[in-house]
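Before a computer can learn anything about folding, someone has to put a protein's shape into writing. The three-dimensional part falls to structure tokens, numbers that each stand for a local backbone shape. The protein below has been through that process, and both of its lines are reproduced in full.
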Amino acid sequence: MQTASARRAPRAAAAPKRPRGRPRKTVDERDDGNRRRALLRGAARLFRRKGFDGTSTRDIAAAAGMQSGSPFYHFKSKQALLFAVMEEGMRHAVERQRQAIAAAGMDALRPAEQLRLLVRHHFEVLLGTGSDFIPVMLYEARSISPRQRASLTSLRGDYEGVWMPVLQALHDAGRLKADVKLARLMIFGALNWSVQWFDRRKEASLDDLTSAALALFIGERA
């Protein structure tokens, strides 16, 4: 004769609780962002030094410590990677400029000081640490599509638009003699060309370049 406890049906094992929210990412998935950034940095450096046509996806993968086909997991083509480099550089430049303006309290500065702040920041974007992105955008634009160029033009408008009120104030004060729109184009042309000749090993610093630019554009002494 079975006891009462023996007659009871055995309880089914409790099902494991399912975690709430989104499933946890695997180690590889968590590393995707880091790998993408490594690809962008490596590609920017190579595109700047060897040019878009002279850089292979094998070169880019090696620079990022990946196998030769791995870049296509993140970007469908080398051109897509080129555009991503340009877009990343421009977005970063816009954000860094915003931060520099906020940190300096630019609205409280006189126009000449505002221009000095903007020029100094622009030299940092062009020539400072991790400065491969913007030069690639400046000199490889022919290698991307018209639609991609239009997208970058919008970002450049956000970046350069901050300069226009400053240049206009200097013009109104008689410090900037040229037409403001033409002056903006010529100023950026002069500053951007520095990526072709500036050498960090020489004696000139970014502050020296900034002072020289202000003296040239508006006759402002250091």
Observations:
- The two ends are 105 Å apart (CA to CA).
- The CA atoms of residues 52 and 140 lie 7 Å apart.
- Residues 79-218 form a domain with the Tetracycline Repressor; domain 2 fold (CATH 1.10.357.10).
- The first helix runs from residue 4 to 7.
